[in-house]
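Thread amino acids onto this structure.
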């Protein structure tokens, strides 16, 4: 077979075209890798911190800013504060990696860990002992003070008397505003699960306040007969008028001049008919989107004495400044924690 110049030319052009196609593909691949690297670099240049609705009110604006400042000074990176009005949005924000740091409830954290191991509890606020031993707050099942006698039985209260009442929860993903008290109600009434709590087997009506203050407002307005919520130990809008602080039987009254939304309910009181201990919520890192070196720097900065002594982060109950956490004594600050500690919460339910 005779190979003509035309055939040779066709072979050459085909070979040259193949090289060009490979070079184009190689160039596109390199460009994609470069763009990905640039986008990752930009993402890591900014650290986002997301807070639950309970920590997003105006009275804690300075506290959020101070927390962010500690993170910014530790890492040298820009820090953005993300506030939400919904618990589910907060949790999704840290799970997805849109935010790199979050402060969430214990139960919400454990549920999130079932979906991804990328998030990790690293710190929580210590108890009065300065350790994890008593790092607790309390979930309340509460009624208006004037209605409390309806639920009394001997020296305590009978939760069976909640039958047929209207109930206000925070959200169905809130640890102390739903998960913990709802599980207690499940046991009290012999239900199968918390879905039945939301049905009509116990309550005539169920409403959600979408935040802890929102659930309290439902109770004060008379929209519900009973509500579940927690009040931070650093909260200064209430005064204890009867019983022992954070115990069943305690009665709290809204002070005059209280911050929104409580200002409209000055003088209103609620009585705790059941107080349930809950592990303090964790400071959570998304370990996939927060660089390892930043994790260590942030943890060290939050454990530092300068953070513990910052009244906008840890405040004395008598202080005019409201911090994110109550500083019950000089021992109180952040302490290291982990998933295993939170998994032990089932032992106190």
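Threaded sequence (349 positions):
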């Amino acid at each position: 077979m005779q190979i003509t110049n035309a055939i040779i030319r066709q072979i050459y052009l085909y070979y040259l075209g193949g090289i060009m196609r490979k070079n184009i593909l190689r160039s596109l691949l390199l460009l994609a890798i470069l763009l990905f690297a640039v986008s990752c670099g930009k993402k890591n240049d900014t650290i986002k911190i997301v807070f639950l609705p309970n920590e997003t009110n105006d009275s804690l604006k300075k506290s959020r800013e101070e927390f962010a400042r500690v993170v910014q000074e530790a890492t040298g990176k820009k820090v953005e504060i993300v506030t939400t009005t919904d618990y589910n949005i907060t949790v999704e924000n840290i799970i997805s990696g849109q935010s790199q740091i979050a402060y969430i409830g214990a139960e919400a954290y454990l549920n999130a860990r079932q979906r991804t191991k990328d998030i990790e509890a690293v710190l929580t606020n210590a108890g009065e002992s300065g350790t994890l031993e008593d790092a607790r707050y309390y979930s309340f099942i509460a009624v208006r003070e004037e209605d409390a006698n309806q639920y009394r039985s001997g020296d305590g209260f009978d939760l069976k008397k909640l039958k047929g009442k209207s109930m206000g929860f925070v959200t169905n993903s809130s640890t102390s505003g739903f998960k913990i008290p709802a599980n207690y109600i499940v046991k009290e009434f012999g239900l199968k699960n918390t879905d039945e709590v939301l049905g009509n087997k116990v309550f005539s009506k169920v409403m959600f306040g979408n935040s802890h203050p929102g659930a309290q407002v439902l109770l004060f307005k008379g929209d519900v007969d009973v509500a579940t919520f927690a009040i931070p130990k650093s909260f200064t809008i209430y005064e204890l008028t009867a019983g022992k602080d954070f115990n069943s039987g305690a009665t709290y009254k809204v002070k005059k001049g209280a911050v929104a939304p409580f200002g409209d309910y000055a003088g209103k009181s609620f009585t705790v008919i059941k107080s349930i201990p809950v592990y303090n919520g964790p400071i959570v890192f998304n370990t996939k989107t927060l660089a390892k070196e930043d994790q260590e720097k942030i943890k060290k900065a939050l454990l530092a004495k300068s953070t513990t002594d910052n009244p906008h982060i840890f405040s004395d109950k008598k202080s005019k400044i409201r911090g994110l956490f109550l500083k019950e004594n000089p021992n109180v600050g952040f302490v290291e924690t982990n998933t295993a500690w939170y998994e032990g919460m089932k032992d106190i339910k």
